[in-house]
Fold:
Amino acid sequence: MPAEDSSGKEWLRRLKRLPRPFYWAAGAAIGAAGAITARIVADAAPEEMRIPIWLTGAALIFVGLAVVSFGTRAWLGDDEPPPP
Amino acid sequence: MIDIDPLQLFQGLATLAASEPKIFYGRIFLILLGFLLIYLGHKGVLEALLMVPMGLGMATVNAGVLFFEGNRMGTLFLEPLASTTDDVVTVLQIDWLQPIYTLMFSNGLIACLVFLGIGSLLDVGYVMARPFTSMFLAICGELGTLITFPLGVLMGLPINEAAATSTIGGADGPMVLFTSLVLARDIFVPITVVGYLYLGLTYGGYPYLIKLLVPPKIRGMAMPMEKTRPISPGEKMVFAIVACVTLSLLFPVAAPLFLSVFIGVIVRESGLTYFYDLFSTQVLYGATFFLGLVLGVLCEANTILNPKVLILLIVGILALIFSAIGGLIGGYVLYFATGKKYNPVIGIAAVSCVPTTAKVAQKEASYCNPDAIILPHALGANICGVITSAIFAAVLVTVVRATGAG
Structure:
């Protein structure tokens, strides 16, 4: 479906135009939210449920780190112009 | 003429003769094992940096047993079982390695120092360039830890000892030391020695596992060319800071390990060359030397001859085999998910053991196809494996402590 493809590409292009610190802040927020939520939920959960909850929290930290990684030149391709 | 009993003159032999058969044969066996470790380290079969001091320490401590007051046998090296403050202070003034043991081992400092050095050698850019594949493989590479924890319990180990032993599946020596010190202090010596011996063997054993599970055609598959742009040191520092803080938020019990490894990363990326040189050479190699030496010295027959050692040997080797299989399964998942464009051998690098398993993966791929360059991908999985094994160690410590067994 070409229309969807083009809108998808446009969405990706817009996402790529966001400044790098946005990715860093978003990634840190996702990771911290995952960590804090997992701790709060695990503390209230029965013992046998804690391992999956902690691992889910760790997975969310990984997602946050992946978002941080997207805010790099390697992903965004915004190589700075060479110095004059 | 003075009547001298030659056995009293040579107390190493006298204590050997006075030992019960189990300790007698144990000491002889451990002296010979020490020689073997030095030989295998020297030949490059096992990690020389660790095995040479460990082997010599093991052989010497089992030879140098002497009589103390009340015909009690002991050594002048260290006393791992001294527990009360008075005993520790007394032993600190007698046994020459006791200060290292008391002030660096029993609080996990030596594991953190090794991690600090390892951190300064890690380039997290390999993970950041391909985060999802690295993280997916690293989780798969912990299969051994996940399987052998309940398996150890089924084989009769208490939950804390089973958890500490299963961390061998993470293939990270400092992690095994840290976890066993926290969870199973009574048998941390055999667990750590078994862990380090097996980690030395991964270099020799994993290539056979790769050959068994991955056909040559797939093994030699070249990875598609990547459009790579440099990742700046600042970007890597952001990654390290976010990882360190969020992981410490979730797993405070492993926060010392996270801080150690990520401060190493940050020193590497921040251009603090004096610190970088210090951590990547003196701190890392100094800590590794004392780690090997003290572990060897702790292998005194009375300490190491524990009926649980056989179970530890079985659980330890199974943990490493399952982790390798898990990594390769992850590699195969990516192979099929990417339309057969991903070399599954990279999966074995997810069993952290930095950088050994990454080198093993590249070597096996190059053996089948000299043009197959998979090292950057393997290093991504490898470095992420270090972070993941710290997470799994933290999960185990937290779980065991929650049950009240740790």
